[in-house]
Amino acid sequence: MVRMTAIVVCAALAGCQAVPGEGPLASAINKDAGRSSADIGRLNAAVFEIVDVDNRSAHLVSDYVSSALKRRFGIGNAGVGRAVIGVGDQLKVTVFEAGSDGLFSTSESKQTSIDIVVQPDGTAAIPYVGTVRFAGRTLEEARKAILAALVSKAVEPDVIIATGDTPSRSVTVSGAVGKSSQVSLNLSGEQITDVIAKAGGATAQPYEAYVTIVRGKRTGTALLKSIIENPSENIYVQPGDQVFVTRDPRTFTLLGAVKGNARVEFGANDLNLLEAVALGGGGNDYTVDTKGYFLFRYEEPEVITGLVGQGRFNELLRKGMKPNRDGRYPIVYRFDMTHPDSLVVGQTFPIKSRDVIYAARHKSVDFSKFLSIIGAPLGIAAQGAGTVSVVGSVGN
């Protein structure tokens, strides 16, 4: 009789939702998905969307992760472009003459080398030539300008210009590298990994080293591992860029009905959804809802529109979905372990740093808790939509 009363009381308590629990049930997460804060009934509640992890969504997310570097940097992968001389550059100008009695030749040598430094006004002085503008010109353009000025003065002259130190064509590399320094760029152009190598290389493993480029008012950050694995994404640096390498071990958080709630380091180049759950010891056989594995993430808007469509994304924005400071939006991926193909799909779904994986408890767990509460020897009053008191020992 008492057990039947417990069932009635539990129903009155809105499915035992009033019973203390570790996080929300799967039904609560599913219910709040795509709803505005007004619909949820809680001021400033976060608006999010739920997407099932299936073969399509797993491949879409995986493909984006492997090809998003240029978009993440927002800088592009342009080549070196037109390499020009700049203020402060050190040059060696060598003038050759055909005769032995010229301005720059003797009986012992038919050439003279002149070391110059480009001045703040962009010019430098050459004997018998005068002031020459170097800044903004390529080496060939500067060579032709000097040669043209010597045609009527020297004996069949020719000119070669070689670069020394080129501070106008340097980038600053600092952080978790062998030696923080200013790296001069060569004329053929250099990429991210080139300048990092010149600074002694990264001191952290590629899968936990992040590279940030500051160019003017724009910044972009990417994992060094992603840059190495995608050569086309190894963008060219430009003069004046600042490159920062930081060690930040990638971690994810595992919560809910699993054998170990913890913040876990990847400890590897890659990590998929199944591996992440396994690192926490897997789900608890007695409490986990196998249909209720959820991954909470702030996702790139391009990924969300690819998953739900532009129309649905716009609808979520109207309902109040907000981005974080990096321009990413909240999304929840739902993973159903009762499907046989989940063991295949889970291997292709990549985990990102700072992901939160939540394993919801089965709804029967709350009912069991409720029975244990009302079955206490001294009796406990359960309050909610209704109230019942059980005093003394409870039998059959």
Walk me through this protein's architecture.
Pfam families: Poly_export (PF02563). This is Polysaccharide export protein. It is a single chain. The protein has about 400 residues and is of the alpha+beta class. The protein folds into 3 domains: about 1-65 and about 250-375, Outer membrane lipoprotein wza domain like (Outer membrane lipoprotein wza fold like, Roll); about 70-80 and about 175-245; about 90-165, wza like fold. It contains 13 helices and 18 strands. A hairpin with a 2-residue loop joins strand 9 (about 210-215) and strand 10 (about 220-225). Helix 1 (about 1-10) packs across helix 13 (about 365-375). It starts with a helix and ends in an 8-residue tail after the last strand.
Task: Map the helices and strands.
Elements: H1 2-12, H2 26-32, H3 37-40, E1 49-52, H4 55-67, H5 69-73, E2 90-96, E3 111-117, E4 123-126, E5 130-133, H6 139-150, E6 158-163, E7 170-175, E8 181-184, H7 192-198, E9 209-215, E10 218-223, H8 224-229, E11 242-247, E12 251-256, E13 262-265, H9 273-279, E14 288-299, H10 301-308, H11 310-318, E15 329-335, H12 342-348, E16 356-361, H13 363-374, E17 382-383, E18 387-388
Parallel strand pairs: 1-15, 7-11, 12-16
Antiparallel strand pairs: 2-3, 2-6, 4-5, 7-8, 9-10, 9-11, 12-13, 14-15, 14-16, 17-18
Helix pairs in contact: 1-13, 10-11
Keywords: Signal
Organism: Rhizobium deserti
Pfam families: Poly_export (PF02563)
